[in-house]
Amino acid sequence: MNKQASFIITAVENGIGMITLNRPKVLNAINTAMVGQIVQAMEQFDRNEHVKVIVLQGTGRAFAAGADIDEMLEKNTIELELLNQFEDWDRITWVKKPIIGAVQGFALGGGFELALCCDMLLAADDAEFGFPEVGLGIMPGAGGTQRLTKLIGKTNAMKWLLTGQRFSAKQALDYGIVNSLLPAELLSEETMKLAKTISEMPPLSLRLIKEAVHKAVDLPLSEGMHAERKNFYLLFSSEDQKEGMCAFKEKRKPVFKGI
Ligand code: CAA
Asked: Over the stretch 235-246, which tens digit does the pLDDT of each residue have?
């Protein structure tokens, strides 16, 4: 049987589902199979009651240096359109649990787009971000023009998309693309600390907060408010709401069950 190579490593530890991109020789260039594996791992973690939060990280010198250029070189419009690989990328949007990205080294092109699919990003001080696609005669196709523009505004996004230049982790922090900047040697430890803090929160609240925040990005305020309120009321039918509030009154640590 022809067993497909694995381009990622997964693990579950203390409520944290880890996905490590693992093609360091080509700076974790993302091929079609790797996207499928990332999405499948995320969907499995999403269904796994032992996983509360997902962490996505790179290896070696890169988070990921973009989509795999070798794989795209000879492709034409019809082949790409039929392959419809971005449908896989879009499935990341439907993952309900929080996703934390830990970026070290290069996060370029599709690698940057993958980082932008995360709900929070921590970056090592050596991280570099950018969309070099313009220099290859193409453009981002996995959400780069949309997500970057929503995050940093039209004029800033235009500069990086039209020049293909790279920007630093500090600039990414100033733009609000990343939550924190860390010495490279502390990135993994600090990411796990943040993941642990979140993993101890009630799972239903986490999922419904994430859903509401995503609506805020896409919907007009009135519709977003409506969605928020529905989720707020919904949480009052959970045992964890009673547990959280009783524990507060009884001055003890709550024990959440995710129901
Ligand atoms: N695809 C395929 N292979 C890649 C790659 C990519 N995106 N990025 C790096 N590699 C490979 C290189 O070909 C090289 O392989 P060999 O050793 O076999 O030659 C290996 O990784 C190491 O890379 P370099 O020798 O180039 O390392 P460097 O330190 O000199 O440069 C870099 C690092 C600046 C990141 C450079 O590798 C680079 O510019 N990479 C391409 C970045 C890019 O253009 N990304 C966008 C891709 S298109 C895209 O992502 C479309 C989309 O929206 C979905």
From this structure: 999 999 999 999
Predicted local distance difference test score (pLDDT) of residue 251 = 98
List, as one string, the DSSP characters of 133-156. GGGGT----SSHHHHHHHHH-HHH
For 26-49, write each residue's pLDDT tens digit.
Answer: 999 999 999 999 999 999 999 999
Report the separation in Å between the CA atom of 67 and the middle of ligand 1, taken as the mean of its atom positions. Answer: 9
For the chain, domains (ranges, CATH) are 3-199 (3.90.226.10), 203-249 (1.10.12.10)
Q: Is 39 in the pocket of ligand 1 (CB under 6 A)?
A: no
pLDDT tens digits along 54-98: 999 999 999 999 999 999 999 999 999 998 989 999 999 999 999
In sequence order, which residues have a C-beta less than 8 Å from that of residue 40 and are 6 or more positions away?
A: none
How far is it, in rounded angstroms, from Cα 34 to Cα 102? 18
Contact predicate 118/141, CB 8 Å: no
Cα–Cα–Cα angle for 54, 218, 226, rounded to 5 degrees: 95
Residue identifier of the C-alpha nearest atom 19 of ligand 1? 26
Look up 133 and say whether it is catalytic.
yes
Where would I find the beta strands (DSSP E) of the chain? 8-13, 16-21, 53-57, 62-64, 99-103, 106-108, 120-124, 128-130, 166-168, 180-182
Q: Give this prediction's pTM.
A: 0.96
Spatial separation of the C-alpha atoms in residues 217 and 230, rounded to whole Å? 17
